[in-house]
Amino acid sequence: MSSTIDPHLGRFGPRDVTVVSTNVLLRVLPHAAPLPPALTMAEVVSLLVPGAPPEVRAAATAYADGESARKVQWLATGLDAGDGIITVFSSVRSAFALYRAHQGQAEEPPGWGAHQAGDAVLKALAICHLCNLLFPAPDHPGTGPADDPIDSLAQLPAGRALAAYMAAAELALPFLGATLDGDHTLAKLLPDHLAPQSQRLANIIGAEAVDAAAQHLPRFGHLLDELVRCTAGHLGPLATAVESKIPGVGVVADGVGNVVAAGADILPVYRFLGLRLAAEAAAWRAGREAGLVQLGDDAEAWAAKYLRAEGLEPQPSIIPPPTPTRVPGPAAESPPALPPPGDAAGPGIAGSAAVGAAAVGAALGDAVPPPPASAPAPDVPPPAPAPAVPPPAPAPAVPPPAPAPAVPPPAPAPAVPPPAPAPSVPPPAPAPAVPPPAPAPAVPPPAPAPSGPPPAPAPAVPPPAPAPSVPPPAPAPAVPPPAPAPAVPPDR
To answer: What is the pTM of this model?
Structure first.
């Protein structure tokens, strides 16, 4: 039985650059293991529940095709290329740049430390939300996943790989060189970054979902901090593996203005691990309900085993219980499906480029058909609500203040006599009359011009004399005709 998740699993084959690079990093860490290839849901079921009967495979496929699995894939994509889902700036590239700066090999790009810290807190909180989606509370004891989603995460190969990768790439690599020790690395970032990052995530999934996810942050954050301590002794080999095996990681921008360009992750690691986690959780949940899967170590025991192998002892968590998100975010909506894969890409970076920095824009534009009617996804109960917080004790009653003493009214102001009337002013004397101007003297008319004799008439002009007559020309003399030519005798 095929699943709608199969085409997306098929994108991450054993030769894909994201898979190869991620497994290289996991091999460096003693508490992690590379993920075996699984290109279909059927292969994932075979890995998690060997010999699963058809009904378990059908249930696993239904969970993988359900709404919760789609939300996990959508949000995990945003942790890589968050533009349009979550604005995430950091990546393994920025983490490596901070590591080099702390080692004195380069200058720290301005502003990158704050972005890396904020995004690390955001990703930790988002992974807690993924756990709530994939591991809902059991319907009744003995069936369904474990009671705590963080313990369920630690049961799965993809869950352990996700926690180990985040502890190494998001926390140990960028921050261990800046601290005197590796204790409580994430816990030290929470006071400055938890509130704003909670609000960022609430704008995407809603405040109630963030509050439910924050209930797991003390345990998951402590698990990450313990894994950072496991990584501390392997930081050099980890940095070498990052620099030599991940393409383009050494190309680091030199200013905060280029953080966005570097932030669209050069490899879609979270999409790969989130997709694999959704598939494994579906198979594991179906196997648990059928009684075919047993629980292993819980999260603390899993980390403690590797801590002691490094000569370290587990430490208690110092992360306090969360407080509810103050500003409510929008109601969570069903996310768009991930884009269907195109032609299979060959080895190299092209196979992951299609799901890298441009994955978000594609994720918002395509849809995956609903699950087949023959295997509907069962209803998944919502995560358990956060425990009710008792209201604060009422404040003690405060007696009302004593009334102020009566103040006598002010004495009336003395009457002011009206002002004396102004003395009358006599009207001004009339101006003296001005005599009219004398009339102008009359001007006599001009004298007429004297009369003169009339002008003399012009003399008469005689007519011209007639032209003399011209005699006709004399006739030409007669010309006599030419004489006849003499006769020529004939030839003999």
So the answer is: 0.65
